[in-house]
Design a protein that fits this description.
Blueprint lengths: L14 E8 L5 H5 L12 H17 L6 E5 L9 E9 L5 E8 L6 H8 L9 H17 L6 E9 L4 E9 L8
Parallel strand pairs: 1-3, 4-6
Antiparallel strand pairs: 2-3, 5-6
């Protein structure tokens, strides 16, 4: 009798035994809630690579534009096919806000806009603070009847000065309130 003999070699999945965040200065829980790798889940190099990009993005949101992140896992298998996943984080210097410019603002002075944004030069850059300030500015415009206002921020990071220049382009539109 002739035929084909198939041999299957079954291996168990390699699972994550621990997640280490070496060099981390942000809240550990904050990071672990946002990455896809989890203790007890199957280890995936592709997922760990996406997690590196996510951690790097979180650091950039907090002004660490020069941060570096990489991951490592031991090459030898651990007991019961478990491996610790280690993210090595080098945050480097945190950026401060440098120059703040406003374009297209006719309804309010630059000082009024900056006070509404609650953003100042030399404070640490944080994306959430910028977004919250933009929300407040849009609300202020809407209170004055500018219902279609757009506030378009842009930023330029200067790596030698470790500063972020912010520009807010305000497209006010028409006010529905006439004095």
């Amino acid at each position: 009798e002739s035929g084909i003999i198939l041999v299957f070699q079954l291996t168990s999945k390699i699972r994550i035994s621990a997640i280490k965040l070496d060099g981390n200065i942000l809240d550990r829980g904050f990071i672990l809630e946002r990455v896809n790798s989890e203790v007890g889940k199957e280890y995936s190099k592709e997922v760990a690579e996406r997690d590196v990009r996510k951690i790097l993005s979180l650091y950039m949101d907090y002004g660490y534009f020069n941060a570096r992140v990489r991951f490592t896992v031991p090459s030898e298998k651990r007991a019961v096919d478990m491996v610790p996943l280690r993210f090595e984080i080098a945050p480097y210097a945190r950026a401060t806000i440098g120059v703040i410019d406003f374009i297209g603002n006719l309804a309010f002075s630059e000082k009024d806009i900056q006070n509404t944004l609650e953003i100042e030069s030399n404070q640490f850059y944080q994306k959430e603070t910028i977004e919250r300030g933009i929300y407040h500015l849009r609300e202020r415009y809407r209170q004055e009847g500018y219902l279609s206002v757009q506030v378009l921020p842009s930023q330029v990071y200067n790596s030698s000065l470790k500063t972020v220049a912010l520009t807010f382009h305000n497209v006010e539109g028409l006010s529905l309130i006439h004095n």
